[in-house]
Amino acid sequence: MSTPLENYLSSCNGKPDAAMTAYVASLQQVASVNPSIAADVVNEIENQRSHLKLIASENYCSLAVQAAMGNLLTDKYAEGYPEHRYYGGCVNVDAVESTAAREAEALFGAEYAYVQPHSGADTNLVAYWAILSAKVETPALEELGVKSLNDLTEEQFSELRKRFGNQKLMGLDYSCGGHLTHGYKMNVSARMFESHPYGVDEKTGLLDYDAIEKQAMEVKPLILLAGYSAYPRAINFRRFREIADKCGAVLMVDMSHFAGLVAGKVFTGDEDPVKWAHIVTTTTHKTLRGPRGAMILCKKEFADYVNKGCPMVLGGPLPHVMAAKALAFKEANSKEYQDYARQVVANAKALAEELQKLGVRLQTDGTDNHLMLADVTSYGLTGKQAEAAMFQAGVTVNANALPYDKNGAWYTSGLRLGTPALTTLGMKEGEMKEVASIIDQVLKGTKPGVTKDGKPAKLKIELDPQVKKDASERVQALLKKFVLYPELDLDFLKKEFCSL
User: Which of 120, 186, 207, 305 is the most exposed place for a label (fewest CB within 10 A)?
Assistant: First the structure.
């Protein structure tokens, strides 16, 4: 019986596609152990090819980046950092990690890069503890005349732990677009620190730098944190640095959402956080279009402290993911990527403008970056209902709270819409107008469902069948022109791996 790879090669008339050949070979190995997992991968390709991805935090990394993760580098333990490992035999991991770090430094103009973190949440934890070590632990050791924590008595160590726990953090409020890890009460960040969140102006939805400065001078936080997961405007990081210097804080920026716009030279000057912040954290997927993972960029004064991320916070580094990061950084350090980043913003602006023409209310009346927040309450829907309706029609979005949202953080009043993934597919301003029209069509064709006793339901919906059909056809017409990973023959993959 022929294998899937043999079947593919025999069907190519002597001209197989290299990417497709590698993909089939990889899935064949997976299927030899568990066919259902191979089928799940193929089904996910089909799912992503059949939906317009407007989730602002998602993208499509290259097949080369994907391939870099599928190798025996995953088998190596490498606690520590290059040239300072707790395990032997790390010479090649050292080379991979160093390459990734130097690529990141070149891409962002950073003094130092630490590329080990596995996710945005743990990279923020590493940054927090690097700052605590530099600003609390080191002065305490110097004051006591010792060099190491191990030199402290139990009483002295207990006192130091109290100092760690009494520090203040100021980050953007979760309800105003900040991230969970920026001091939200349900997250460990608010349990590590005394959290003092700042908000946005209730009328404009914009950051008020004078109000932030006034609050910072009253609070005197150890860390002033800038960055967001749902804020549609550019940030003046020079102004944030002035505030941090004035109140004696370390300026930390979480640029996970917009790192690609910094790498792509869309955000420069006062809008470039790497230039102004002491420590910058970021994920490596989202707009940066790399593998799932994260990193820290920092001034050299914090390099030795972030290097202690493993084993202080992190478990063993993931060498195969660091290899993929190195490739993604290399891809991003190019004119092609800069063109992509500019198009992401151009598409976001075009989508926002068309939605507004159709009567959709947008937070801050538009966008400067890759995302926007749409108020769906005028359609009589919650964000959760709007999200469900859009998915039924072939558009993937996520419900998102608006600042000071009366529907709360679960049901929400809004949708967060982003353009990174559609831009990766090659869509431009013309397609964004069609996408906006589809969104409006679906929302207008949706009404809330009712409970058994006839009351309005906050989650159930009724999407007009004709609207669903028409919108779905429009979605598919777009996606036929802009195919995800066109190198991959989905019909062949389904035939070989989804019928096992």
Answer: 186
